[in-house]
Amino acid sequence: MIKINENFLKLKQNYLFIEIAKRLKAFSAENPDKPLIRMGIGDVTLPLPAAAVEAMKKAADEMGVKETFRGYEDTGRGYDFLKEKIKAYYNENGAEISLDEILVNDGAKSDSGNISDIFSESNTVLITDPAYPVYVDSTIMAGKQIIFAAATSENGFKALPDYNIDCEMIYLCSPNNPTGSVYTAEELKMWVDYANEKHAIIIFDAAYEAFIRDKSLPRSIMAIPGARTCAVELCSLSKTAGFTGTRLGYTIIPNELMAYSENGEKVSVLKTWIRRQGSKFNGVSYPVQRAAEAVFSTDGRAQIQANIDYYMKNAEIISNTCETLNIPYTGGKNSPYIWLKAPNGMSGWDFFDYLLNEIQVVGTPGEGFGENGGGWFRLTSFNTHENTAEAMKRVEKLLS
Amino acid sequence: MIKINENFLKLKQNYLFIEIAKRLKAFSAENPDKPLIRMGIGDVTLPLPAAAVEAMKKAADEMGVKETFRGYEDTGRGYDFLKEKIKAYYNENGAEISLDEILVNDGAKSDSGNISDIFSESNTVLITDPAYPVYVDSTIMAGKQIIFAAATSENGFKALPDYNIDCEMIYLCSPNNPTGSVYTAEELKMWVDYANEKHAIIIFDAAYEAFIRDKSLPRSIMAIPGARTCAVELCSLSKTAGFTGTRLGYTIIPNELMAYSENGEKVSVLKTWIRRQGSKFNGVSYPVQRAAEAVFSTDGRAQIQANIDYYMKNAEIISNTCETLNIPYTGGKNSPYIWLKAPNGMSGWDFFDYLLNEIQVVGTPGEGFGENGGGWFRLTSFNTHENTAEAMKRVEKLLS
Question: If one looks up domain B50-296 in CATH, what number appears?
């Protein structure tokens, strides 16, 4: 009799965004004349950069001609034409990586969960709270124990290592989803030192690195001395270049990174991951890889920067409103997310309902990201200038 | 101290195609004047159908315009425009499935390994021998026990169920890779009856269904009565439509399919899989989904049929050579693979070296697919007519 993996039965059934969708549907059914301004979900809204569109079309044409058709990619880990661009981009950001350490994939989400597969179920995983729900859910699926590290207003929503706590895997995200907080180089160095001391591995989610404007802040953990022996980095073009529906990300695994067998032998994390992917992944669509290559061209870089600037202007509008109203917040300076305290001691869900019912502005209740998200609220900068300004005008009127 | 998942250490290190590549490289280095005719690797060579290229380009253009841009797909399980086409295609093939039972993915390989995640490590997995190596490797990674079911010349390389053997998961592939054998409806019904009796789940790989020309043979296990309570089907456009570098497949999981919790409660396999994918997958690139939709259009269907007919003519050339030489073989009639007995009691590897050294024809030694592959050899029909005919002329001369 086929048995289900019991770990899956431990998952919470009601996913945050399902509950939100339910409440929005109910509101709109009762109030068809009141359009919503959605500032909740973290999806981009500006189109793909023109350079990427053109490159994808050119590659599609190549696929239609026998002489230039491409079938299976040899390695399934990404074409060199793209990995060369990623390597150069990392070098600009102060991180030296080699081509074989770059693994192109269909978006950071897949690997952020799947990477856990290659590590023993006996490892304990440290996850900051609040956090992107995928880290928690995929850790539960993998049957590993979780320790939460509190990210609160006291530490600027940046959890730091505690040497009294032992763990073997650590999920960090900077710029952070949902809080928008960004680790400094000194703070990341504290995590790197801790991980090296404990022989733990940091899974560093850099999906929002392109939104960092303060040049003193690290865009990659690979720029931190010591990271090559303790860190994996996940990155993505989803937010950087509007690839949420086009699908391309990449994982960096340094050659020096080791895990240990039961009898204490060192095992290469990169080689183990390559072995996994060899049996479970067949590479990213060739035209999508060409589109990604074009993102890193001179034209592509200018086009994505214009989009990021557009979103960051929205972030500024939202931050300004928080400052005008004296609402505590993080993010918005080097991140597309603004994480703000619900006023008057409201819970995040109460504030969600309040904004929805009174002014039809939709955000995300902090409770959906963990216990420490209670009483906090996430707004995103991915709507239009017009809608963002209108929403903040309504918020100012409602709360002042 | 971070521990590796010990299951990964149990994998064999030398993967079949790596060893082949090594031998070919050595030969070509010593014999630069002798070009190879490659009939080993199962990759297609004809370009994408024009309908798919045009659809992808149109979708790329849509992605470059704000009004038609698409970000995250709502469900990440495939757009209805594509699922409607797949459903209609299945109906043609005698299988009734609903849209919510279709899960679009980046190719059959990912799900064929990942599906194991949602079932308990305690389940035993039955795999036919020989088989596509991914089934074995991903089962070892998942820590599950394997039972092999012998597919030999005695049973036409079609293993059938043995009620004395208990198992909980069963990998079947028909038309088979590597042997090209195809189960009849009666034989598949025997597996379905066995699985229902044992409360086991069949993972049915239908990646080569489009090569079936005999209309009496089933193209989908979902066309077999009883399959909806015991089977998952994996399918792909890789071979059907030349998508090996474009990447799109789909998995069918019937609503009725159940697994069991430790305390005997029924758990929906579809719902559990959806929960997994919700945390570990974000859907297939929109332009790729549009290209796939176009494959199922009237023009697309005609274009892919022309390609399949081209390959099947090659299969016929190879089969004819086997018949002329009185070499026992399977496949080639309803499959792009021809599985033949190495002559004179040679091993598959000996025959590989013999063909390589004497006539520069490259195939795949059967040993790479399992113990029962010993002494057998796989040729594929994905080269050109000219090369296939030339290779078979050389084989006939060499062996007669």
Answer: 3.40.640.10
Residues shown for chain A: 400
Q: Quick one: closest CA in A to B230, which residue?
A: A2
CB-closest option in B114, B246, B291 to A280 = B114
How far does the CA of residue B325 sit from the closest CA of chain A (Å)?
A: 33
Domain spans in chain B, listed from the N-terminal domain onward: 13-42+300-399, 50-296
Q: What is the bridge-based pairing of β-strands A258-260 and A249-252?
A: unpaired
What is the model's pLDDT at position B14?
62
Is the overall model pTM greater than 0.90, yes or no?
yes
Distance CA A146, CA B5 (A): 17
In angstroms, the separation between the Cα of residue B380 and the nearest Cα of chain A is 15
CB A349 within 8 A of CB A367: yes
Strands B201-205 and B231-236: parallel
The listed CATH number (3.40.50.620, 1.10.8.1000, 3.60.15.10, 3.90.1150.10) that belongs to domain B13-42+300-399: 3.90.1150.10
State both tokens at A278. 């060899």
Phi, psi of A89 (to 5 degrees): -65, -45
Tell me the β-bridge partners of B379: B338
Q: If one looks up domain A50-297 in CATH, what number appears?
A: 3.40.640.10
Whether A95 and A224 have beta carbons less than 8 Å apart is answered as no
**What's the confidence (pLDDT) of residue B225?**
98
The enclosing H or E element of B376 equals strand B376-380
Task: Quickly count: other Cβ atoms within 10 Å of residue A163's Cβ.
Answer: 9
Q: Which chain B residue has the Cα nearest residue A237?
A: B71
Tokens found for residue A392:
């903040």
Angle at A305 between CA A304 and CA A308, to 5 degrees: 90
Neighboring chain B residues of A20 at a CB cutoff of 8 Å: none
Kindly give the parts of chain A with pLDDT less than 70: 13-14
Structure tokens at B260: 């069991």
Quote the CATH superfamily of domain A6-47+299-399.
Aspartate Aminotransferase, domain 1 (3.90.1150.10)
pLDDT digits (tens, 9 = 90+) for B84-143: 999 999 999 999 999 999 999 999 999 999 999 999 999 999 999 999 999 999 999 999
Give the residue on A whose Cα is nearest the Cα of B137: A279
Q: Which of A43, A52, A63 sits opposite B53 (nearest CB)?
A: A63
Q: Running DSSP on this structure, what letter comes out for residue A287?
A: H
- Three-state secondary structure of B277-332: HHHHCCCCCHHHHHHHHHHCCHHHHHHHHHHHHHHHHHHHHHHHHHHHCCCCEEEC
